[in-house]
């Protein structure tokens, strides 16, 4: 355990950031999971309306460095291709 004031503060800050990052990543995963469920159900119209919200969640996670920019681009591309492949 940290002993000096600076180390205690850094531990508090790190814990706050970990919780915030976990929440942002959870939002991304939930949005993707919901989109994939709609795609599996075959509702093309709903999937197209959900796609911008999913991309926005991914972009916000990448903007705050919760995920790497390349990973964000990959996830957005996969989601877009999945929606585009629906008939």
Give the topology, please.
Layout: H1 5-41, H2 44-63, H3 69-84
Overview in brief:
The chain contains 3 helices and no strands. The protein is an all-alpha fold. It is elongated, with a radius of gyration of 17 Å.
Structural overview:
- By secondary structure, the protein is an all-alpha fold.
- It contains 3 helices and no strands.
- The protein has one domain (5-84): Up-down Bundle (Methane Monooxygenase Hydroxylase, Chain G, domain 1), CATH 1.20.58.110.
- The radius of gyration is 17 Å and the shape is elongated.
- The longest helix is centred in the N-terminal third of the chain and has 37 residues, at 5-41.
Distance between the termini: 57 Å
What is the makeup of the main sheet? none
CATH T-level fold name: Methane Monooxygenase Hydroxylase, Chain G, domain 1
| Radius of gyration, in angstroms, nearest whole number | 17 Å
How many domains would you count in the coordinates? Answer: 1
Order of helices and strands: HHH
* Percent of residues in beta strands: under 5%
Give the name of the CATH architecture.
Answer: Up-down Bundle
What is the highest CATH level, the class? Mainly Alpha
CATH homologous superfamily placement: Ribosomal protein S20
Low-confidence stretches: none
> Care to count the β-strands?
0
* Average pLDDT: 96
Q: What's the total helix number?
A: 3
Structural class: mainly alpha
Percent of residues in helices comes to: over 70%
Instruction: Indicate the overall shape.
Output: elongated
């Amino acid at each position: 355990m940290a002993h000096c004031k600076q180390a205690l503060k850094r531990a508090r800050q790190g814990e706050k950031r970990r919780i915030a990052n976990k929440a942002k990543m959870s939002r991304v995963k939930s949005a993707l999971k919901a989109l994939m469920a709609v795609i599996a159900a075959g509702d093309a119209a709903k999937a197209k309306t959900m796609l911008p919200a999913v991309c926005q969640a991914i972009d916000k996670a990448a903007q705050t460095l919760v995920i790497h920019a390349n990973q964000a681009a990959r996830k957005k591309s996969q989601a877009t291709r999945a929606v585009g492949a629906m008939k």
